[in-house]
Amino acid sequence: MSHCDCGMTVEQPAGRTHCHECGTATCRSCSVEFDATTFCRWCAQTSALARPAA
Fold first, then answer.
1. Which of 7, 19, 47, 50 has the most CB atoms at less than 10 Å from its CB?
2. 53 falls within a domain
3. What would the pLDDT profile of 4-52 be if each residue is shown by its tens digit?
4. Please, what is the Cα angle at 6 between 10 and 46, to 5 degrees?
5. Three-state DSSP class for 42?
6. 50 by DSSP, 3-state: which?
7. With a threshold of 0.70, does the pTM exceed it?
């Protein structure tokens, strides 16, 4: 069992995703997909949005 940074308990592997940037386990509410890559909402604000469009 792990916890998302928002405090939600993430128990099921199917309900848990990992941030591509920092590796943090996140709940589905805090996961953001950008160019088929999953980020946590905190890294998405800094990393994903700063990447140039292809």
1. 19
2. no
3. 777 777 665 555 678 888 888 888 888 888 888 888 888 888 865 565 6
4. 115
5. helix
6. coil
7. no
